[in-house]
């Protein structure tokens, strides 16, 4: 009698493999050699009794080998995407053979044109994604990821990506600054800030103060919150659309408002609450977050990343910048905000394209930037401003690399002198003495995203002349929350064996599509991509399949009991005709069987019924059966069988 030793790696869920490197000791134990360090194994033996008979032992307990050496395999990069002209996102999986506990990952980014320097950073071992920012547009970069343990650095995985070139503004997309000035809403061209050539698009009574403004560039509307508790909607030219949108919410004194332009919601800060309100009729509001005893100063919503950001100012116990996932807003059970930055922050701005937050630092009289998760904080104006005026900022925006801001009583802008690399600040000559709620207004200020990842898990069910295609939504990127926008349209492409597209069908709703007019017994390839009005995403992996041979194969179907009906359902899930409805299906079907054109079923009352399909006859009750539960038909012996509580007939 002989035996084989088999081994498998538990962590990778590998198959059992024969392992020849072992020695049987006199004690009967087995000394196994040539294993890999820091790997979890299981073992078993297969005894060969005869040429056709064998006996298999139980699997051993899980055993991990000791660490030794640097990692012997590289991490696997699962996603490398240029999120914007200046930002690259990379995600990876740990190496299979770490050879010891990992301490960190080493990331480097190298411009391939040779006119830049390498960026290198170490990130903690519990991270599996990273964002490189402040890059140049239209450049080729190589990203390298390696793993590090106590013995050293392992091999690296390298991959290249190209940052896109930003588009130019057309005349129609002239940028405007929309802001509150005392009891007015002002619209002014951003490129003409040093003039007083601005337009008052809304004028409130002098006793009312504008406290917040939100814009929706796609709908060309402006929302105005004021200290009387009203939220007013006007178009961008000031035409009144609704004087009190959220009268049913009983707002007391809203202090900030912002617009989710992709899901069509507004978010309103009022006292200790943040409300989530419908932007389209019928107008309604729900409590998104309650943060007693604190009051949010400014809020901003980012539907691209899927988070709501807000600041708490001038509180000793809790201050700074916070965020919650949009998917958690308004859920039962109070969502727990993430504290991103601990500082006195009143106003802040979000750069949707470059995934950055800009916020003031009054202590150092400057503007800081951080990624959307609060990491990689840097000073955006260190040593480059002549006589800075970044103190006590209430609201700010950034356009074309320059800031516009207010401290509540004065407005400022800056100009850049490329000759000496210096920014100069200007106080704008406006007569009003209260300013708030700065907003950029031009199409690119509220971008429509393009899908950056393909649909997942594409599956196709072929009949003789159709293909039923299903897929899952695109994978969210590493910086996105569950509330990030993913309501894409989809395109399904069907290709022949030669790779030529023979059908391309748009799917505006849902995650499935039926493709008609295919040929029987023919090879096809199917792929899916997500798309938006801003562009198309990458194609999914291709599904290879073949239609069935005979056209009459489409006569195959399922018979299902639904409510008080028996229905024919095609193999692709499409409901066909109803076989039987109402009585005697009521009070429900317990079991089903069929033979040729006959359908048998047992009811919940224990009766057996038979019905001939394709006839107008009513179902007949089989009187010889009582208290039946399960039913089956023997298509060879042509007998029906059923079970009862005590006996089987």
Automatic annotation (TrEMBL):
Pfam family, one: fn3
Domain Fibronectin type-III as annotated: residue spans: 74-167, 454-550
Keyword hit for Ribosomal protein: no
GO cellular component: external side of plasma membrane; receptor complex
InterPro entries: 6-blade_b-propeller_TolB-like, FN3_dom, FN3_sf, Ig-like_fold, Type-I_Cytokine_Rcpt
Molecular function GO terms recorded: cytokine binding; cytokine receptor activity
Keywords associated with the record: Disulfide bond, Glycoprotein, Receptor, Repeat, Signal
PANTHER family: CYTOKINE RECEPTOR, FIBRONECTIN TYPE-III DOMAIN-CONTAINING PROTEIN
Protein name: Fibronectin type-III domain-containing protein
Organism: Dreissena polymorpha (Zebra mussel)
């Amino acid at each position: 009698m002989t035996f084989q030793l088999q081994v498998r790696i538990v962590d990778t869920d590998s198959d059992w493999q024969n392992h020849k490197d072992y020695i049987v000791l006199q004690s009967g134990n087995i000394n196994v050699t040539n294993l890999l360090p820091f790997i979890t194994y299981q073992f078993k033996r297969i005894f060969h009794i005869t040429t056709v008979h064998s006996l298999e032992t139980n699997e051993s307990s899980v055993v991990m080998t000791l660490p030794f050496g640097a990692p012997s395999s590289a991490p696997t990069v699962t996603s490398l995407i240029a999120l914007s002209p200046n930002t690259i996102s990379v995600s990876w999986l740990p190496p299979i053979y770490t050879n010891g506990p990992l301490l960190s990952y080493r990331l480097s980014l190298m411009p391939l044109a040779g006119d830049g320097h390498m960026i290198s950073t170490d990130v903690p071992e519990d991270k599996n994604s990273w964002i490189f920012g402040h890059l140049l547009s239209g450049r080729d970069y190589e990203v390298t990821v390696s793993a590090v343990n106590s013995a050293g650095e392992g091999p690296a995985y390298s991959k290249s990506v190209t940052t896109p070139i930003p588009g130019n503004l057309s005349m129609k997309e002239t940028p405007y600054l929309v802001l509150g000035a005392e009891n007015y809403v002002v619209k002014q061209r951003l490129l003409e800030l040093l003039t007083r050539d601005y337009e008052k698009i809304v004028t409130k009574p002098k006793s009312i103060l504008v406290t917040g403004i939100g814009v929706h560039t796609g709908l060309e509307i402006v929302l105005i919150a004021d200290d009387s508790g009203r939220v007013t909607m006007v178009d961008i030219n000031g035409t009144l659309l609704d004087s009190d949108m959220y009268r049913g919410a009983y707002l007391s004194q809203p202090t900030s408002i912002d617009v989710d332009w992709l899901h069509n919601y507004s978010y309103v800060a009022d006292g200790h609450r943040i409300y989530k309100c419908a932007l389209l009729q019928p107008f309604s509001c729900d409590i998104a977050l309650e943060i007693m005893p604190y009051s949010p100063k400014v809020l901003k919503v980012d539907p691209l990343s899927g988070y709501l950001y807000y600041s708490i100012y001038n509180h000793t116990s809790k201050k700074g910048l916070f965020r919650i996932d949009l998917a958690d807003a308004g859920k039962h059970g109070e969502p727990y905000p993430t504290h991103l930055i601990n500082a006195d922050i009143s106003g802040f701005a979000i750069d949707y394209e470059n995934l950055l937050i800009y916020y003031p630092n009054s202590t150092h009289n400057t503007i800081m930037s951080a990624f959307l998760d609060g990491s990689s904080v840097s000073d955006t104006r260190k040593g480059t401003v002549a006589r800075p005026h970044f103190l006590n900022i209430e609201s700010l925006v950034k356009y074309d690399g320059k800031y516009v801001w207010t401290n509540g009583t004065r407005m400022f802008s800056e100009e850049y002198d490329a000759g000496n690399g210096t920014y100069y600040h200007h106080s704008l000559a406006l007569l009003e003495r209260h300013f708030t709620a700065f907003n950029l207004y031009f199409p690119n200020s509220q971008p429509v995203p393009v899908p950056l990842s393909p649909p997942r898990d594409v599956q196709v069910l072929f009949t003789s002349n159709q293909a039923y295609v299903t897929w899952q939504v695109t994978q969210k990127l590493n910086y996105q929350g569950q509330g990030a926008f993913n309501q894409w349209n989809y395109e399904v492409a069907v290709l022949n064996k030669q790779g030529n597209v023979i059908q391309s069908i748009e799917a505006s709703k849902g995650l499935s599509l039926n493709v008609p007019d295919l040929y029987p017994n023919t090879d096809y390839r199917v792929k899916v991509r997500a798309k938006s009005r801003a562009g198309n995403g990458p194609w999914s992996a291709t599904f290879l399949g073949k239609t069935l041979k005979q056209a009459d194969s489409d006569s195959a179907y399922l018979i299902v009991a639904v409510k008080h009906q028996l229905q024919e359902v095609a193999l692709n899930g499409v409901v066909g005709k109803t076989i039987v409805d109402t009585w005697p299906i009521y009070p429900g079907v317990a079991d089903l069987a069929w033979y040729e054109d006959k359908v048998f079923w047992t009811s919940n009352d224990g009766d057996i019924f038979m019905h001939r399909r394709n006839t107008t006859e009513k179902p007949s009750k089989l009187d010889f059966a009582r208290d039946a539960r399960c039913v089956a038909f023997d298509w060879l012996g042509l007998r029906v069988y059923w079970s009862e509580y005590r006996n089987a007939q």
